[in-house]
Design goal:
By secondary structure, this protein is mainly α. It is built from 15 helices and three strands. It has a three-stranded antiparallel beta sheet, with no helix packed on it. A hairpin with a 6-residue loop joins β1 and β2. α8 runs parallel beside α10 and α11 packs parallel to α13. The relative contact order is 0.05.
Length: 256
């Protein structure tokens, strides 16, 4: 075999003949060779289409799963077209709740707002997973870890509140006894009646008035004022005075 240094042509010859070899798409199998050798990054770089990239990502996810690096595996599985149910069952059977949560969070990010049913199903499942983790940590876990998960859960509720069904979410949170998270979610979805009622029932009138001050519906103010004036007259009258502009202009300024 010889190569023409000027034209770059390749010639293959024998004792009786000479062939000119034309090379097209020389690198088309490079991704596969890299994949076979376990060089996933190079394989992904040389992959030419979505199917090839999906095969590489799937192989990399399987590699991390076999190495018990479950959360890394979750990140790569979420980028593949693998069966959602199949991947979820892998993590469930391996008893890897954190990795399952990571996979669901990554998958949830890929859905559009118009994919309402898929978003609601996955978001609701994640609420249950977060609550399960919080219950486990409450029964035996570090305070720092518990606070981290509470922060993660609240950030999740804030980001995906539009994907959640209110009553289902309330019921799930209440079933785990997470009162503070229930109140946090209620304020996120502007369910001020629920929050104010809770504080009044628990005779925490100051906090009831604070929540009332953070909303702008005069009807809520009218609804609870009779109860509050009887139980906390000074604070309620102060709120009336400070909020007189609410009734005149319909505007609301946070005074707390």
């Amino acid at each position: 075999m010889a190569r023409d240094s000027t034209s770059g042509a390749i010639f293959v010859y024998s004792d009786i003949c000479v062939w000119e070899v034309e090379v097209h798409n020389e690198d088309r199998f490079v991704w596969e060779l890299c994949l076979e050798s376990g060089d996933y990054e190079a394989a992904l770089k040389h992959a030419k289409n979505a199917a090839q990239k999906d095969k590489v990502l799937g192989a990399q996810a399987d590699h991390f799963f076999d190495k018990q690096q479950y959360e890394l595996a979750a990140q790569y599985y979420a980028r593949t077209q693998r069966s959602f149910e199949g991947v979820s069952l892998q993590f469930i059977h391996a008893n890897q709740t954190d990795a399952l949560k990571e996979f669901l969070l990554r998958k949830l990010e890929t859905f559009r707002p118009t994919d309402a049913m898929q978003r609601t199903v996955i978001a609701t499942w994640l609420v249950e997973l977060f609550l399960g983790t919080l219950s486990s940590l409450r029964n035996g876990g570090s305070e720092g870890k518990l606070e981290d998960v509470v922060d993660q859960f609240r950030n999740f509720l804030e980001k995906y509140r539009d994907a959640l069904n209110k009553e289902t979410t309330y019921n799930l949170i209440a079933s785990h006894g997470r009162t503070e998270e229930m109140l946090f979610y209620a304020e996120l979805v502007s369910d001020f009646n629920r929050v104010i009622s809770f504080y009044i029932q628990n005779t925490d009138y100051t906090r009831a008035l604070q929540v009332m001050a953070r909303q702008s519906d005069p009807e809520v103010f009218y609804k609870y004022s009779p109860t509050l004036i009887a139980s906390a007259p000074d604070e309620t009258v102060d709120a009336w005075i400070r909020y007189q502009m609410l009734f005149v202009t319909g505007t609301c300024t946070n005074i707390w």
